[in-house]
Write a structure and sequence with these properties.
This protein has 266 residues and is an alpha+beta fold. It folds into 2 domains: 27-41 and 184-265, Translation Initiation Factor IF3 (2-Layer Sandwich), CATH 3.30.110; 44-98 and 141-180, Protein of unknown function (DUF541), domain 2 (Alpha-Beta Plaits). The chain is built from 6 helices and 11 strands. Strands 2, 3, 6, 7 and 8 form a 5-stranded antiparallel sheet that branches. Strands 1, 9, 10 and 11 form a 4-stranded antiparallel sheet that branches. A hairpin with a 7-residue loop joins strand 4 (105-112) and strand 5 (120-127).
């Protein structure tokens, strides 16, 4: 038996282990997979604002409440339930009024007495701070603005269209853009994730077949996405609308899932 120094034996031991790890790491097929589920939005949220300005807060609230009740009644008349309506957000603020005339200063021509026969001519400049003192200004009652925000959830886009037809007749100050989401998006994402893993397995099988090797079990799986949405509008749905009355089009949402998978090679 050869007498090999211990230091050399130790170095040879580490080299052997390192070579095995590199070889084991090379005996895998790494692929990516993507799954896509297309679904139309089925939950619609609309927010609108009703506001009024005046100097008596009680009268403002009565006016805003009256118009808010008309909005809520319009929603309930098309089948929207009370739990789908939120009208509790009210805001009252003081409106700062600018003066009708802003006086920055006045220059007055004046004749000053003189020892000569002719008086001296000159001018006097009066600063606006000396003119607009509080004791000369007439105090006006405070101007208020009261605002109520109403948020309504619709289960169908047709209900939204019906509501919008009624609401334009009411004096609403602002209507926000319609928010469109998908219910049970987590379940749909799980379906997309299953598709992504299945696609990765198919790709790995094709690669193994062309490489002349046998595909083994899955040894690594990494999820790269997290319930990712990508809105997309359907041209086909737009082409179907030929009626005179406008019908809102929702398009579709793409729910994507992507993974990285490694398979062992037998």
């Amino acid at each position: 038996m050869l007498n090999i120094p211990k230091v050399f034996q130790l170095c040879l031991f580490f080299i052997t282990i390192y070579s095995v790890e590199v070889k084991a790491d090379a005996q895998v097929i790494e692929v990516s997979g993507e799954g896509i589920i297309e679904v139309a939005p089925n939950n619609f949220t609309l927010s609108l604002t009703i506001s009024e300005r005046g100097r008596v807060p009680d009268k403002l609230k009565a006016s805003v409440d009256k118009r808010s009740n008309i909005v809520i009644n319009a929603a309930e008349s098309i089948g929207v339930k009370e739990e789908a309506i939120n009208s509790a957000r009210v805001n009252l603020r003081v409106v700062e009024e600018k003066p009708a005339i802003e006086l920055h200063g006045v220059e007055v021509k004046h004749k000053f007495p003189s020892t000569n026969t002719k008086p001296l001519k000159g001018s006097v400049y009066i600063d606006s701070n000396e003119i607009s003192t509080q004791k000369y200004e007439k105090q006006k009652p405070t101007l208020f603005e009261l605002t109520r925000r109403v948020t309504i959830n619709f289960s169908s886009i047709d209900d939204y269209d019906k509501f919008l037809t009624q609401i334009v007749k009411i004096r609403v100050n602002h209507i926000s853009s319609l928010s469109m989401t998908v219910k049970d998006s987590n379940k749909l994402y799980q379906q997309a994730l299953t598709q992504a893993i299945s696609q990765a397995s198919q790709k790995a099988s094709v690669i193994a077949k062309h490489a002349g090797v046998t595909l083994g079990k899955m040894v690594y799986l990494k999820e790269l996405s997290n319930n990712h949405y990508q809105p997309q509008y359907s041209m086909a749905m737009m082409a179907e609308d030929s009626s005179v009355r406008h019908r809102s089009l929702t398009g579709t949402n793409k729910i994507k899932a992507s993974v990285i998978v490694k398979f062992a090679i037998n």
